[in-house]
Design brief:
By secondary structure, this protein is mainly α. Helix content is 70%, strand content 5%. The longest helix has 25 residues. The two termini are 35 Å apart. The model has no long low-confidence stretch (mean pLDDT 90).
Length: 200
């Protein structure tokens, strides 16, 4: 990406994921070009990349609309996440290092609250990497990228009332128990899905 296109892309992407730009909102090339002090070309290129990412829908002669998240989107994303992450944590239980477990302890939810979104992402990334399967880890990272906008709807991210969800996964990994690790991961993902769906 060119620098200008990249700047616009990441700024608009962040605004969409954080909810500053709402679902269904129309985005206009000209307005963004004025806002960011650039020509329409990098704006158009950035918006087309966001269309490819699924965050925007192109509307002929109208601009671009922030693609709404549907219940089906949520269900499909969590279904895939459960399949991939349950396998990753099973593999990780067999080979995760003590240092990686220490990293998980440092990044479990609730410590400290204002870092929860980033810590949650890193927590799941560490487990994916500890699986030893690089392709599986990349797929999980891609899925977590796609799910950023969905996870904003999980109230637990802002106010974790029960950090045991992550702790149960850590305990199973520390015990080198693949079945328990899978059970804890699936329970966690299903709880997150339930909390998110309650917001729809």
């Amino acid at each position: 990406m060119t620098s200008k296109k990249s700047d616009v892309y990441y700024a608009v992407r962040k605004a969409i994921i954080s909810g500053v730009i709402k679902q269904g909102e129309i985005i206009n090339e000209g307005e963004l070009a004025r806002e960011y002090g650039v020509s329409r070309t990098p704006v158009r290129e950035a918006l087309l990349t966001l269309v490819a990412d699924g965050l925007l829908t192109s509307l002929p002669r109208a601009g671009y609309m922030v693609t709404p998240i549907t219940v089906r989107d949520v269900q499909e994303a969590f279904h895939l996440r459960e399949i991939l992450e349950s396998e990753a944590v099973r593999l990780a239980a067999l080979q995760i290092s003590p240092e990686q477990i220490d990293e998980l302890e440092a990044r479990k939810m609730g410590i400290p609250p204002h870092l929860n979104p980033a810590y949650n992402r890193e927590f799941h990334h560490i487990i994916a990497c500890a699986s030893g399967n690089n392709r599986l880890a990349r797929l999980i990272d891609q899925l977590l990228d796609e799910m950023e906008r969905i996870l904003v709807y999980d109230p637990f991210i802002d106010n974790p009332h029960d950090p045991a969800e992550h702790q149960n996964i850590i305990n199973a990994l520390r015990a080198r128990d693949p079945a328990a690790a899978q059970e804890a991961m699936c329970a966690h993902i299903r709880l997150v899905k339930t909390r998110v769906l309650e917001r729809f």
